[in-house]
Amino acid sequence: MTVHGRDLGLLALRLGVGGTLVAHGAQKLFGVFGGGGLEGTAGAMHAMGFRPGKQNAVLAGLSETGGGVLLALGLATPVGGAASAAAMSAAATVHAPNGFFATSGGYEYPAVLGLASTALAVSGPGRYSLDAALGGRLTRPWLAAVALSAAAAGAAWTIRQRQQAVAAERNVDEVAEQVQA
């Protein structure tokens, strides 16, 4: 067996991005690594405008954990990459008002994770993966397009729901201020 640099690079990228996503998802779902667990994350999601908070916490945690595991293993890579990219898209919109750089609370970090997840969904996992061991059965050429399209639609819907909730709360706050004035 010959070692191929491209495949080693994809393995390293999958392990790094996938492992990071698993850790973030585990914070949300299980409260490990200093995370809030499901209840704490549900409260945070609600405060950020995601309704219902608990359902969105579960979806975000599963997308990150499940997508990260699939990416790290190189198993159903288009699906894992798409799920992770969708979660990072929603996260990026929360941080967008703070600009690009993470040092200012911006969307840099979720954007990079989402972009890397998308790139892996499109490129495939390389030969050092479970997908390769299975003969590419879970990485058919059409699967990346379908998975990314479905993930984009789900992310767009979630983002729109959040924007509507945030706008409604802003309107309630404005009316309350006018009543007090």
UniProtKB/TrEMBL annotation:
InterPro entries: DoxX (IPR032808), DoxX-like_oxidoreductase (IPR051907). It is a multi-pass membrane protein. It is found in: Cell membrane. The keyword rRNA-binding does not apply. It comes from the Bacteria. Its main location: membrane. Belongs to the DoxX family. This is DoxX family protein. It comes from Kineococcus gynurae. The lineage of its organism: Bacteria, Bacillati, Actinomycetota, Actinomycetes, Kineosporiales.
